[in-house]
Amino acid sequence: MVMRAPNRGEMAAVHMPWLAWAACGVLALGLAACQNIAPPKTLGAGARVVNTVAGTSIVRASFNGQGMGGGGGEECCVSLPEQWRPGMTATIEWVVDPSPGVNPGGIRQPPRSKYGSITAEGSRWHEEHEANYVRRKVTMAVPRYEKVSSLVLVFLPCDEVYPLIDSAEQGRVFGGLRGLASSEWDDEVIRRLGAGKVCAASR
C-alpha cells in the first residue's frame, strides 16, 4: 500500500485548531497582564499633620505631591489607593521651622504697625526667618492598611515621619490620650509608634 503525503490544505486543517488554542492562550495572558498593571482604585480622604517634636513646627508637607498645611487641622482631600498593596511606597516632603517665633540670636518677631500691617523691619525679619527653614524629603514604604480612615503624617524626632492611614491603627496610636499634657501626649505617640527620642548621631 502506498502512503500519500498530506497536501497543503490537509496540513492547514490539522494545524488550525492548535493555532486557535495558542491564540486564545496569548490573549488570556495579555488580559491578565493588563489587569495586573491597571491603576489601583483610589478614594478621597482627609489629611492632617501631627508634630511630636517639641520646639519646632511643620510649615507644610506633601504626600506624593499632594500638599497640606502644617497647622494640625484636617484638610480635604488627598487621593489614596483604596487597597494597600505589597511594595507600595510614598514620597513625603516637609518643611520644618526649627525655631518658631525666634530668629538666630534670640531676635523675636517685631510688632506690626498700629494698622496691623507688617512693617519693613518685620519683612526683613520674616525673610531671615524663612532662610532658616529646613527641608526634608523621603521615599518610604507605606505601612499596611485594611480600611482607609484618613491620612495623618506623624512627624517624629530624628527627622522621621510615619504615615498613618489604617482606621484601627489610628485608634491604637491616638486612642485614650485625652487629658494628657502636650509633652506627655507627644511622648506617648512616639512610644506607640516605636520611635525614639534620642537620635543616632547624638548617642
How would you explain this protein's 3D organization?
The chain is an alpha+beta fold and 203 residues long. It has 3 domains: 8-38; 42-98 and 133-202, Immunoglobulin-like, CATH 2.60.40; 103-132, no CATH class. It is 30% helix and 32% strand. The protein contains 4 helices and 10 strands. It has helices spanning 8-37, 120-130, 167-174, 182-192; strands spanning 42-51, 57-63, 66-69, 75-81, 89-97, 102-103, 107-108, 134-141, 148-156, 160-166. A 4-stranded mixed beta sheet has the order 4-1-9-10. Strand 2 and strand 3 (66-69) form a beta hairpin. The longest helix has 30 residues, at 8-37. The radius of gyration is 29 Å and the shape is globular. The termini are far apart. The model is unreliable at 10-16 and 18-24 (pLDDT under 50).
Mean pLDDT: 84
Strand content: 25-35%
Query: Which shape, going by the Cα principal axes?
Result: globular
SSE ordering: HEEEEEEEHEEEHH
**Alpha-beta classification:** alpha+beta
Rg over alpha carbons: 29 Å
Helical content stands at 25-40%
Largest sheet entry:
4 strands, mixed
Extract low-pLDDT stretches. Answer: 10-16, 18-24
For this structure, the quaternary state is single chain
Q: Specify the CATH class of the largest domain.
A: Mainly Beta
In what order do the strands lie side by side in the largest sheet? Answer: 4-1-9-10
> What is the name of the CATH topology of the largest domain?
Immunoglobulin-like
Gap between N and C termini: 95 Å
Using the 3D structure, state the CATH architecture of the largest domain.
Sandwich
The number of strands is 10
* Count of the domains: 3
Helix count from the secondary structure assignment: 4
